Amino acid sequence: MATSLSPLASRLLIGGWLGQLLLAGGIALVAPIPVRPLVIERRFCSESQQEALLHRYRQLVLRNRLGIERFRPVILYSVYGKQEHDELPAASALGLASAAGDGNRQQAAQLQDNHPTALVLRCQQAP
Amino acid sequence: MTTRSLLSLSIAAAVIGGGVLANTALNPPVTSFDSSMERLERRLLPSITVESALTPAALASAGAPLPMAERLPQAAAFPLHGSPADGITPSGSTLRVEIVSSLEKADNQRASHRWLVDAAERFNQRGERGNDGRRIEVVVRPIPSGLAAQMLVAGGYRPAGYSPASQQWLELLRLDGITPTLLQPSLVGNRSVIAVRGAAWKQGGGGPLAFGPVMERTLAGQLRMGTCNPYLCSPGLDFMHTLLWTTAGHAGQGGALQAAELERGSIQRSLELFQQRVSRIDPTYIEQIEIWKRRPEALDAVVMAEQSYRQLQREPGFGDLVAVPFGAEQGSPLVALPWTTGAERQALERFGRFVTSSPLQTLARSQDFGQPSPVPDGARPPRAGGELLRKVQRLWKQRKDGGRTVYLQLLVDVSGSMNEDNRLSQLKRAVIVASGAINSGNQVGLISFSDKPTRLMPLQPYDANSRARLLATVQGLQANGSTALYDGLAVALHDLMQARRRDPNGRFHLLVLSDGLATKGLRLEDLRSVIENSDITITPIAYGDVNDGELRDIATIREGTVYRGDPKRILPLINDLFQTTL
């Protein structure tokens, strides 16, 4: 049997929700959206590894769109060189299907030093 | 205008229009692979009588591999330059010293590629004498570096000196048990580059032009690149070594490429991916330069020697060409060989000093050798030893097709004129030898033509059985009759196009060898649009002293090039083409 709330309890509940929403909005206004660099290693990966990496990347794109987190700069590197973007490129522009070579360890270490807070995406292990 | 005139005009227009419509209905335009196939099957093949003469399996047992020395051309097949008495045995008062040299500096037929010949002529005019009082005479024989190394290893050819285009060939010689003695580390400055069209690079987004980014764009399908066979072509071997060194992650970290790294799946599959994206692989880059000159938009980048790049840059339409230098320091060394006598060695040392002197180096610069461009660290691997270079060559051969099956249809002219000058017998020998260069799993077929085409061996996967069948079939070839070139071409194209329908990812090649003009059957115009839309790479060989205009026309339709062969040189030519294609 459903219990009905008294008018006072209902008002308190709605007021509480509104209060929480206002508080969240206030925090969002006061505390800026966190921004951090994103480093993506392009190397030869199996198709399933590429898919897994793309899945993680799309999740980041979504977080970026929802304003939960921003990624800047976005650095793509491979044994053939490095590219830097101001914004998240489209997933298709990562060119994972045409990525070749093993990981560039020196570049990875250098990027780690220069961007210690960066989120790093890479295939777990080339086959 | 009277009513009668108007009526006549209307009738005439109707007749012409009707004719055009009827013609269009009977001969619909060929604009695609499918319509090309339809034209072949409905209009062209029904008018051709095709014979079939398959070699019985029982006979298909011939073809024991020839020893190495017999698989290679004789040195006499290549000209000798530098002396007024070229080819004549010198008298006892002359010490003739022969140097086998790479083509970019000893090709007498091209004014810009004959620096070493000029140098030999100038040296000989000085009338220098050896310690024993004999007059020194230096002669130069131009043979591609890789082929010359194979001939030296095989024995039977023993020149006093060897001057390949790069040190890499010396490493390979050492690996094969021949230890050369270095007399001059570098006669002229040269280096490997990727020549890139500036406009194509900008179109792909521009940015710093370097080895890594060029590879990245090629892999992404944004740059159409041509490379050459690393068994034959110095920049091709240099390129493959640098590519693998970079791919294994050494470009940023230094260190040499290790043989064990070539075993890694990631490296092998990366190379396969790269090979899938490469637009053209030819025996040498000379063919690609020819295609580029004819149609500058055919390729965006070609691996070549810097000297060739400098010459090409002056050609109309190539002003925006940019060079990306890469590779280890190679030089263009001069070496003595284990069999070189003391007197010959002294003569070579004198010649070496002469050609590295200031006036001769000035002459070299006038032929675009000059100071090689510096290579950034990221594109300069340490020099590789022979064992590693051999592994690099083998890996290229295994992976060059990028995981795709290659289909090669051989279309061979057996008209009566093939009996002249041992043409047919030398061709048979060439195919038998070159069959050893075919990767198993690829498919090979053979069609001959004279009065009419004859299917001798349908396209079939290459293995020990099909090799035996191919060899027996080739040995059974007999020449007579006229030259129904285009009838043969139509049948060969059709077989390959059927294979393409079954395997759209394959690579399809048609090698046409003919010693004359078509004398009967279809004409080129009947086939032009079919060839255009066939998706088949056609490589004609003009065999013997023939007018190659017709074959050139065939090649041009699909951006190919014509090779010229004669009975003396058909063997290395077919071998090079098989090794590169198959």
Characterise this structure.
The complex is a heterodimer of chains A (127) and B (582). Chain A has 127 residues and is α/β, with parallel strands linked by helices. Chain A folds into two domains: 1-31; 35-121, no CATH class. Helix content of chain A is 42%, strand content 19%. Chain A is built from three helices and four strands. Chain A has helices at 7-30, 47-65, 105-114, and strands at residues 35-41, 70-78, 81-85, 119-121. In chain A, strands 3-2-1-4 form a four-stranded mixed beta sheet, sandwiched between helices. In chain A, strand 1 (35-41), helix 2 (47-65) and strand 2 form a beta-alpha-beta unit. The longest helix of chain A is centred in the first third of the chain and has 24 residues, at 7-30. The termini of chain A are far apart. The model of chain A has no long low-confidence stretch (mean pLDDT 82). Chain B is α/β, with parallel strands linked by helices and 582 residues long. Chain B folds into three domains: 33-59 and 404-581, Rossmann fold, CATH 3.40.50.410; 68-190 and 331-366, Periplasmic binding protein-like II (D-Maltodextrin-Binding Protein, domain 2, 3-Layer(aba) Sandwich), CATH 3.40.190; 192-330 and 372-399, 3-Layer(aba) Sandwich (D-Maltodextrin-Binding Protein, domain 2). Chain B contains 22 helices and 17 strands. Chain B has helices at 3-26, 33-44, 68-71, 115-125, 145-154, 168-175, 198-203, 211-219, 234-247, 250-253, 265-277, 285-294, 306-313, 342-355, 358-366, 386-399, 423-434, 464-475, 485-502, 524-532, 549-557, 570-581, and strands spanning 51-52, 94-101, 135-142, 161-163, 181-184, 192-197, 225-228, 280-282, 301-305, 321-326, 334-336, 406-413, 443-449, 453-461, 507-514, 537-543, 563-565. Chain B has a seven-stranded mixed beta sheet with strand order 1-14-13-12-15-16-17, sandwiched between helices. In chain B, helix 2 (33-44) packs across helix 19 (485-502). Chain B is globular and about 95 Å long.
